[in-house]
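User: Let's play a game. I give you a shape written as tokens, and you guess the letters that built it. Ready? Here's round one.
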């Protein structure tokens, strides 16, 4: 915790903030600021839903680059429901957490078939849709339909934990605190929810919060007790597991082989160059040959390296070794994949790939999209 965070010694046990005072302070602060968020002031439930799903576990600055183009491609729930999964994943490419895109499309299909292409207003019905949890349901209900429903995301959790100095609050306890604030001004539930979110993202930040700029600093119990840096408690995480992966860019007649991952699971539905995890005591080229034999039933010759890529996911990191290769025997069969395709390098842009594979594709482009001369 930075020494810049003000600490006030309490002469007596501080009183927790009252909901009425908090609601007033939050609204005055919210009304006096303008945050550059593309969907701020949006009233279309579909567009609000897309924005909230994109913003899950993703920085707003990143979402800005995807929000407009995605809506141009899929302007309403009907177009999203009718879209091919490959098209949806391509529009999502680079945004990460691809299960969100798959569930967004699945929910769109359910909305079309069960609700006449209109998002339901009731929070419990919203929560029944794929990919919509308590937070997203509350956000849609309040922002799109004006209902006094709490929307407790990570930012709001942090704000409420500090305001009330809650050491280990349950989701129900946090929702209760938020609901009490909304009940003061149910007509402005959307603004109150957004005020709490904005406060957490811009002032009551995880480290070095700007307590001197907080509209509720005068009633913040954690600030009075000097426990701001302890609220909410930091979840300890060990080092990320490290995996070494080998992949092959297999050439044939000027085309390269790509496979599509199964729809469910990590990076589900995305295309990739075939390969897999390097086993203990195994060299990456050997791993590439073994993986293609096991997964596609082919024998390959591994040639010169295309490069090495380091990439971190949320729960592990990888070192990816890529090699040019060519078929020696067999015809590829997608036994461990959903599909395969032989495509010209310039056509790779039509498919959705994970970030590590995109960096390999950049290297292919740098090489003028031609195979090594020995594989020509």
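Assistant: Ready! My guess for every position:
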């Amino acid at each position: 915790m930075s020494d810049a965070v003000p600490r006030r010694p309490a002469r007596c046990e501080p009183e927790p903030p009252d909901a009425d005072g908090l609601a007033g302070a939050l609204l005055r602060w919210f009304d006096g600021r303008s945050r550059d968020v593309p969907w701020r002031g949006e009233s279309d439930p579909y567009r609000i839903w897309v924005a909230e799903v994109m913003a899950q576990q993703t920085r707003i600055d990143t979402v800005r680059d995807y929000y407009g183009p995605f809506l141009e491609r899929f302007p309403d729930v009907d177009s999203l429901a009718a879209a091919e999964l490959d098209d949806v994943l391509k529009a999502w490419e680079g945004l990460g957490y691809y299960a969100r895109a798959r569930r967004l499309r699945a929910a769109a299909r359910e909305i079309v078939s069960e609700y006449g292409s209109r998002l339901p207003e009731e929070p419990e019905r919203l929560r029944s849709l794929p990919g919509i949890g308590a937070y997203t349901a509350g956000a849609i209900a309040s922002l799109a339909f004006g209902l006094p429903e709490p929307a407790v995301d990570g930012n709001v959790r942090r704000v409420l934990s500090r305001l009330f100095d809650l050491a280990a609050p349950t989701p129900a306890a946090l929702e209760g605190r938020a609901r009490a604030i909304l009940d003061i001004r149910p007509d402005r539930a959307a603004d109150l929810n957004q005020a709490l979110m904005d406060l957490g993202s811009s002032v009551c930040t995880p480290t070095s919060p700007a307590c001197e700029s907080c509209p509720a600093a005068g009633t913040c119990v954690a600030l009075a007790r000097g426990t701001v840096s302890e609220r909410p408690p930091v979840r300890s995480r060990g080092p990320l597991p490290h995996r070494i992966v080998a992949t092959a860019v297999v050439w044939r007649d000027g085309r390269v082989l790509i496979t599509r991952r199964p729809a469910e699971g990590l990076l589900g539905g995305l295309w990739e160059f075939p390969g897999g995890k390097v086993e203990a005591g195994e060299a990456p080229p050997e791993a590439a040959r073994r993986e293609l034999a096991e997964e596609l039933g082919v024998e390959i010759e591994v040639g010169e390296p295309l490069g090495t890529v380091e990439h971190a996911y949320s729960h592990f990191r990888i070192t990816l070794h890529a090699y040019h290769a060519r078929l020696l025997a067999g015809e590829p069969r997608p036994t461990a994949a959903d599909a395969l395709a032989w495509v010209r390098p310039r056509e790779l842009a039509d498919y959705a790939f994970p970030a590590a594979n995109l960096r390999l594709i950049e290297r292919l482009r740098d090489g003028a999209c031609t195979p090594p001369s020995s594989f020509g």
